[in-house]
Design a protein that fits this description.
Elements lengths: L11 E10 L9 E12 L3 E11 L5 E11 L8 E11 L5 E12 L3 E12 L8 E11 L4 E10 L15 E11 L5 E12 L20 E11 L1
Antiparallel strand pairs: 1-2, 1-12, 2-3, 3-4, 4-5, 5-6, 6-7, 7-8, 8-9, 9-10, 10-11, 11-12
Length: about 230
């Protein structure tokens, strides 16, 4: 549900609704978050992914915006593997601008698919780490009747595993199950997911910058639903 680049160059719009505590990017802000997004295939080689988020529950409602362009590097070779890379930009809820660089690797099999990506971020803020690293991995398997089940894992600020003074409180990981269903005779696809958020390491250094994610040392959770319409 968080892996930009899934489904190759397919095009769809999606609406996300989530509720969480002690959340972090790519899940957005604590409380209730809504998100409207578009993934558009630009020919056979490029994909545009863009979304607008609305967070409610922690003070005044605020918005975020994000856009990325991905290039599918193996398309010309007709490879069964999707290997993509791209650049993007995020305007966070708190107003900070973030430069994004993403690498996606995945493959669709006869009855399953696996995707992972590495997202490298540079926030234009003197209080943030020069580089943040987020990884996502998801696996799902088709059951029957358009039903698919799987698992998803996300890690952020993973440099906290080897940097004791990581500026944003340490490494954070998320893991949980997912389930999806395609409604027969329609272009609609509903995805449900949720899981625990664990502060895997704790850094004594805490930035004073505003965060879209919570930098307290407690664990948390997120539950999420996504409705997709294929174009």
């Amino acid at each position: 549900m968080t892996s930009t680049g899934q489904n190759g160059t397919s095009s769809f719009v999606h609406y996300d609704a989530a509720y969480g505590r002690q959340t972090f990017e790519p899940f957005g802000a604590d409380g209730i978050e809504q998100n409207l997004g578009l993934q558009a295939g630009l020919g056979n080689f490029f994909t545009l992914a863009a979304n607008v988020g609305l967070a409610v529950g922690n003070g005044p409602s605020t918005t975020s915006q994000q856009a990325e362009i991905l290039a599918h590097l193996l398309t010309a070779l007709n490879s069964p593997v999707d290997f993509s890379a791209g650049l993007g930009y995020r305007h966070e809820y708190g107003g900070t601008g973030v430069l994004l660089s993403r690498i996606v690797l995945g493959r669709q099999f006869q009855s399953s698919e696996a995707y992972g990506n590495i997202l490298i971020e540079h926030a234009f803020s003197p209080y943030r780490d020069p580089v943040d690293l987020t990884t996502t991995f998801g696996y799902s398997r088709y059951i029957s009747g358009g039903v698919r089940v799987g698992v998803e894992a996300v890690g952020q600020d993973l440099e906290g595993f080897w940097e004791s003074d990581e500026a944003e409180g340490g490494a954070v990981v998320y893991a949980g199950p997912t389930a999806a269903v395609v409604f027969p005779g329609t272009n609609l696809n509903l995805v449900l997911g949720g899981g625990l958020i664990v502060r895997a390491t704790h850094s004594p250094r805490m930035s004073g910058a505003y965060r879209d994610f919570n930098t307290s040392l407690g664990n948390g959770f997120v539950v999420r639903t996504t409705l997709c319409y294929a174009l």
